[in-house]
Amino acid sequence: MKLEDFKDKIPSKIYSELSKRGFKELRPCQVKAIDKGLFEDKNLLVCTPTASGKTLVAELAILNALYHDKGKAVYVVPLRALANEKFKEFKKLYEFKIAMSTGDLDSSDSYLGKYDLIITTSEKLDSLIRHKTPWLNEVKVVIIDEIHLLNDSERGPTLEVLITILRKLLKKLQIVALSATIGNPAELAKWLDAKLVLDDWRPVRLDKGVYLEGKIRFE
Question: Scanning 104, 147, 156, 201, which has its CA 20 to 30 A from the CA of 78?
Answer without folding.
Answer: 201
